[in-house]
Amino acid sequence: MQSLIGTGVALATPFKKDLSIDTEALIRIVNLSIDGGVEYLVILGTTAENATMNKEEREFVIKTIIEANKGRLPMVLGVGGNNTAEVVEELKARDLSQFDAILSISPYYNKPTQEGIYQHFKAVAEASPIPVILYNVPSRTGSNVLPSTVIRLANDFKNIVAIKEAAGDMIQAMRLIKDKPKDFLVLSGDDMIALPIVLAGGSGVISVIAQGFPKEFSEMIRLGLNRKVDDAFKIQYLFFDCIDMIFEQGNPAGIKQVYQSLGLAENTVRLPLVKVDESLENRIDKFVKKNQ
């Protein structure tokens, strides 16, 4: 899918100090990402803190981003969970006509076998009326979707079109790229190794840091896709320390500090997450002010 090549942004949800959704800030963040040149928007991924939002809030976030986007960029919606029947029910009930694809995380906490993961995504693929992006993030789910399972799914279901690969394992990513069907996309889910994955044959990234620095990060990925390696790595190394910083005390606490330093939104998160400590706040603020 051409619309998924390049940089997608896993949008965080800005909150006011009273923990309510900051609508105006959310619109500012959407516009910054679009104006900065990213290729698509990802709504209600794990970065959005959707786990601590109720159904009405999640629907409000979806509606707000759709209206702010005004059809300018393709959109991907996070639809996943560890109750397969519930995910299937949502896919059948939800109007997905505004979206190019869904992003669906592998079941967390249950720790299914590879066969269980395959059967879960089989049910998701059969229920989804639009393309499916698999999401592998073992640090959050407690289980790794092995390349053999991904390739099996990609070969068996034409609407499983990509994977957001966030195992942080370059060898695993390379194995996926080597063995995947021709049109299947391997997208980095890890900002730090997004460029190496692209240079190895991947198709882009679903990024956190790109919503703070959309122009620079999306340009880095485009340079990588065009094999302008030296220019791409100049940007990579410029943001190397900042990528570490935004994940140092958890996501999205770090990127929300970037928001605050940019004057976009408060650095407020909902429990059980807490905002970054003063030391990290100062370091991120210093980097942002230097590179604005």
Q: Could you describe the 3D structure shown?
A:
This protein has 292 residues and is an alpha/beta fold. It has 13 helices and 8 strands. It has helices at 23-35, 55-69, 84-93, 114-127, 138-141, 147-156, 170-179, 194-199, 214-225, 229-238, 240-248, 253-262, 278-291, and strands spanning 6-10, 40-43, 75-78, 101-105, 132-136, 160-165, 185-188, 204-207. An 8-stranded parallel beta barrel has the order 1-2-3-4-5-6-7-8, surrounded by 6 helices. The longest helix has 15 residues, at 55-69. It is globular. The two termini are 33 Å apart. The model has no long low-confidence stretch (mean pLDDT 97).
Helix-strand layout with pairing:
Blueprint: E1 6-10, H1 23-35, E2 40-43, H2 55-69, E3 75-78, H3 84-93, E4 101-105, H4 114-127, E5 132-136, H5 138-141, H6 147-156, E6 160-165, H7 170-179, E7 185-188, H8 194-199, E8 204-207, H9 214-225, H10 229-238, H11 240-248, H12 253-262, H13 278-291
Parallel strand pairs: 1-2, 1-8, 2-3, 3-4, 4-5, 5-6, 6-7, 7-8
Helix pairs in contact: 1-2, 3-4, 4-6, 6-7, 9-10, 11-12, 11-13, 12-13
The major sheet is characterized as: 8 strands, parallel, barrel
Radius of gyration based on Cα positions: 18 Å
- Measured as a percent range, the helix fraction is 40-55%
State the low-pLDDT regions, or none.
none
Strand ordering within the main sheet: 1-2-3-4-5-6-7-8
Secondary-structure-based class equals alpha/beta
End-to-end C-alpha gap: 33 Å
Outline, from the CA principal axes?
A: globular
Find the count of extended strands (DSSP E, 2+ residues).
8
Mean pLDDT: 97
Q: H/E series, N to C?
A: EHEHEHEHEHHEHEHEHHHHH
